[in-house]
Amino acid sequence: MGNVGHAIFLTVIILALLGRTTADPTWKLIDGLLKFVSVGSKGVWGVNRNDDIFYRSGTLEDGEASGSGWVNIAGKLKQISSGHSVWGVNANDDIFIRQGLTASNPTGTSWLNVAGQLKQLDVSSTANQVWGVNTNDNIYRRTGITTDLPAGTNWEQVDGLLKFVSVGPAGVWGVNANDDIFYRTGTFGNEASAGSGWEHIEGKLKQISSGDNIVWGVNVNDDIFIREGISLRTPAGTGWKQIPGKLKQVETGLSGQQAWGVNSGDYIFQRTRLTATRPSDIFQLPTIDGYSVRVGDCPGNDIWVIYGDGITLQDCAERCTSHPDCVSFMFFDNKRCFPKSRTCEETSQDNPKNVFYDKIIDPLPSIDGFSARRGDCPGNDIWSIYGDGITLSDCAERCTSHADCVAFMFFDSKRCFPKTKTCKDTNKDNPKNVFYDKPFVVTERNVALNKMASQSSLFRSEYPAERAVDGNTGTVLYPRQECTHTGLEYEPWWKVDLGDTYVISHVTVINRGDCCGERLQNFMVRVGPFEDLRENTPCGDIYSETPSDGETIDVRCAEPISGRWVSVQLIGREDYLSLCEVQVFSGSDPKSVRLTDETSKRWRDDLRCGSEFPAPNATRGECDPDSCFPCCSQSGYCGNTPEHCDCADCVNYGTIYGVEKSPVWSGLSEEALLSVSWREDFRCGPGFSAPGAEVAECNPHSCNPCCSGSGWCGNTEDHCGCPDCVDYRSHGVPGIKWREDGRCGPEFPAPGADPGECDPISLFPCCSAAGECGGTAAHCKCEGCIDFRKSPGTGADLSREVPGFLLRVGDCPGNDIWSLYGDDITLDACAERCNSHADCVAFMFFDNRRCFPKTKTCKKMNKDNRKNVFYDKESATLLSVEGYTVRTGDCPGNDIWSIYGDEITLQDCAERCTSHADCVAFMFFDNRRCFPKTKTCEDTSKENPKNVFYDKKIELPPFVDGFSVRRGDCPGNDIWSIYGDGITLSDCAERCTSHADCVAFMFFDNKRCFPKTKTCKDTNKDNPKNVFYDKDIVSMTASSERGPEFTAQNSKLDWQETATAAGAWSAQPWLMFDLGRSKRVTSVVTQGRNYSPDWPGESHEEWVMSYSISYGDENGDKVWYAGDDGETVVFEGNTDRDSKVRHDFSDFSGPFTARFVKIHPRTWHGWVSMRAELDTDPYLDF
Fold it and tell me: Is the CATH code 2.60.40.180 the one for domain 884-952?
């Protein structure tokens, strides 16, 4: 991730960096280092000191988001701007725009060079506007920007001279070389205007940012300001207000209340809000003795609810004061009084007339040997003691005398709860609860004494890094040589290797005493497992005060930090660093800490790690040292292979925390080692032999029991679940001999069996002749069928089968017709009970003692008791009905009618449905029930196998040019809803085509037409008469463009050249189609470059002679189109400018399905110039 990857990621608020007080709204420190940051509708982007480019993940179209990590983008830029698109300038002042930015690809695809040169530019998020200034401070704005042409067409010079310009909803603002501030009149709320002149604004700023009714800026001292009072009446605002903090560059977010910026040390900050007017500022809150007051309410926990027009505040307070359980009350407008038994940390402020009063509780009573705080840590009680006369000393004595008691909660001389655990934050709903923690006594020691130390540079050989850990606390550098001393440099550092892992609570720094104590200002202490100090966790805040000569400074970590390395570094300053002694205090023995509970967990459940993947209690996610995956790889994954544990940038947390796992073959004799069938380097499969196997396996009892298709042992889906994977845990285990997709037989091997089998104790225990697992006679009793229940050791005892029933082990609890108990119940008698009952579809039989005939079955058995045997009645052959497809089960609900009777025929039921206009399906049950329905469903409920479901066969809907068609609907987003008996499909399509916002429409049975502004990925298919038409919208991007006249949009088939637009896309190496959603691509058509005599250049003979194709759903790079031989197909291209060459994919290996398709030119005539079109199947979902 470039320099950003080595930046500090703090979880504490860095007050010193911004010079603010904790009462101000927070500036949140963001991980990374940047010299310039920009926020807009295309997310947060920035550049660092090396001109590397970064995008902040998770910030696209979300101006309030902080994001989740930095993504390095190819290229170099010195300044960047995010708005309706992303623009930037490089060190040569060349201008670029990012192409291919979409919701699914927020980082885009490529950079397009735009004609011109600028040193700085700014992009609006709310209009198609880009302004910039060049090296001579001349001002320019980009014209001709549209959705189809985001790069625009020309630069228009604007009068005036500015060194920095910004465009936004508040208009165009800028500063000149003298830091004078200017507003462009006529641009507030009208960004598309070039304005009419420059209005000078009082003040001085070196950089400025225009936002939503607000302008942000910083001056030469890095002070931060906002312009207030900006409105339609006063577009230039009314005055400047200083915002606490120090930044060298700031940019307003989408809301104007939020901003991003960087300081002089390139640290990145986000401000999520400005100080808003609180409801309590609207009117003066009345006070009352004995209570504190705030606006809002804490809903619930009311002792009483009192209503009336004459209730006074004094009356309400008196009600609370006189009740022993009342701790607060809400008072509303002399009409309502709510005394409460609890309070809350934050009130609900929906109604500013609600005023909340908290009873002022007496100071906490103290008791020797315990620290006191308000609230409770619920749970973990040793006992619960109630009574009116319980004293605090009695409760403390109970805890002190119990070996496991670490704390207790005491309530109002009535309740005492000694506890085995404490908690970090108490629940303070009831302020009468007081919590007492037994102090944890730790004997601390200085673990840095005489350890190995180093520093960033050496001023003289007499002042080495070891001077700070030699035990000498003297403070004279010269002539006693009692301190360290670096050279003059930016952010110098000193660090010590403790040699082992300790839990550090605080660090004492002793400053130089003979002079120059102020040089230690703005230092930070870090603790952690990494030699690179920037990867470690800050201990406390930056020390921003000016230290005195010889001062001893104790830095307390907010929470104890485990680590081996401790560092001291100056932040954001160039100076010398001199330390006379650094004492690192710990109360733990090496390797004693085991971070396993959730409150101190430093690793993630998704096995990601490193600086881009913070964990709950670590800014750099670690790996669980006690797990199978203790090592973090260079790419940020926890694992246990050499690529995770032994590479240059790998981190082995097992080593760091002293959890050394022995190899799985340790302790084996030399003779036993010769028979081991796995390898030490985790390789496996063909090409890798082991001491006891020609083809190496994986240890089935280790953390890596599976062999991947690429020959590595591991424990992920890529190792255990792929078609070529081998799970060695399954060898000889019947439970892993079947497949999840229900296929079986010689053509379908399972991880532990070839041929694949079927689960003998499942609903589908038999393999049919066609290779499918099931439970019908066609699976279990046909010629070529295999009934795996008859295999030994499966737990399915088939000593007595019952004709007409299929057997499984287990039970489907519930749905019993009767429950029969006895010592001599026979299996035949139980089966007869079920056969003789019309509603019985299955029965459970237990050990000749229990019989449970049932009205329903189930797919997944409860196998807690292996003596339970379940018998499913075999389903009869499903009867077909012309015009319908048939399946077992039901789609409950949506009945037109419910018809019951003893002699209802299937034909009668089908006729009922066929004759009803809204009927699309029906359920038929045993010649007794018929349910015609208005909707169907994708998966039927099969609890009752006598239910049979019939779906009406719907004809293929007609094709509409320019649209693809699928079954169903995307509810909502209707432009209009048109009803009628004579609406035609072509009328409905025309309505959509003629409306600028219409992207799709739903058409129903010549009766309904719904043009829509949005589509959806998956349609609702409950009603098969609904047909959905998506407008075919194809966008094209390219890896590069020859110039602004050769854009990817010029690649449309039959595109005609003009004086300003070339007759084709021209550049290399690829052109990409975005089909909007995944579609079946059937053919490709190409042309060369069209020619027009209006083109200012010479006549051109340019076309692509051959090309290849790649495609995918996330991008166009997943699969290369290959022939039947597996080789990438090279398609013949064009031989002239305008002839069309078509290739049908059915002539090769067949059509393919994808959203993104790339054409990769291989050979060409003249230049790579191409026009192209893809044909897609409009009936993708049919």
Answer: no
